[in-house]
């Protein structure tokens, strides 16, 4: 009996997924548990496995297609079995409940996403073949309207495969003459046959080539553009929204990191995994308990202060930046917090993290100190009102014991706090940093491993 497999609902906020890669092809034999397809949400990549063994009878979407959740992705069964009843939209066409749970309009849009986009024409062919049409006139004719072309102009364009989108016509009324097109042709850089093939594949075009008379050679071309992934698009959109909808400011401070370094050395010697970033996050949680205004969200003009601290932490993955969330982080010891962050980071990096583990943060920590960054401006993750950036540990000269005593060199860790001025003024943000500094400098007595 044929068995359809749907696009799963990967978290409460996920409504569609992208078909990233088919690991099995139509006609392949599969066993129960074999990974058939990789799908991608706006936050992570997941694998969809075969629930039963058999033959992969049909795949309903091409790689790159957007598919609503609960829509049939593929069918497994015995050779010769019909799959038409499981094809997305097929049952709806007959007035019966569809195999998926989306309406026909949504399914049609998803199928449209999977169609191959037409190849982009090179810059010198942007106007397309001149089959009785015209070349848009530049100033001198009527801008934006086609200038009338003579048969000689169209013949020259076809013979030389030269179809510019605009040309300065010198004839009456801005009419393009053969001489106008000929002059533009000889003054424009043109590709060699090898370069033209690469351009058709999407290679970027330079302003002029290195060949004779500016001819564009294959070696002059840059790599083809890389389309943004769904995750990268989501990151870009979130960052634009962050800057457009909040009034961000950043405060920079530092703390004596001697206690952090000593505690890290001691716990590492005991085989425990808490690192400097984990310790700073733990101290930040303790500081948030005293400053609940920063553990809040600003939604449609209302400030929601949360009694629970759900700590988000920025995580660099092969697919881009994601923010896993440690729930009820204020209830964890340092070692428990470190373990939770390590497990979530490993799942995010491997692409197996749940979508629900990437949502719901009330405060975020971004640590670039391990990469040597001395100071940076972390961007808010709206509707959160604050985010803490953890900078690198550096040697810093400080004065100890008054003006007459000497200078002492210490390990100092930088802290960068970004707040939304709509909800948090500068003074409360500064007081939070002051308390955080104190907790970091007394981390050895604060932490119960």
Key descriptive features of the protein:
3 domains; alpha+beta; 4-stranded antiparallel β-sheet; single chain; OB fold (Dihydrolipoamide Acetyltransferase, E2P); 27% helix; 21 strands; extended; 449 residues; Chloramphenicol Acetyltransferase; 11 helices; 6-stranded mixed β-sheet
CATH architecture annotation name of the largest domain? 2-Layer Sandwich
Strand % is 15-25%
- Tally of distinct domains: 3
| Name given to the CATH homologous superfamily of the largest domain | Chloramphenicol acetyltransferase-like domain
Class of secondary structure makeup: alpha+beta
The third-level CATH topology of the largest domain is Chloramphenicol Acetyltransferase
CATH class of the largest domain: Alpha Beta
The major pleated sheet works out as: 6 strands, mixed
- Low-pLDDT parts are 91-144
* Fraction of helical residues: 25-40%
Treating each run of at least 4 consecutive H or I residues as one helix, how many helices? Answer: 11
Overall mean pLDDT: 81
Number of strands: 21
Taken from the alpha-carbon principal axes, the silhouette is: extended
The end-to-end distance, rounded to whole angstroms, is 56 Å
The neighbouring-strand order within the major sheet is 12-21-20-19-15-18
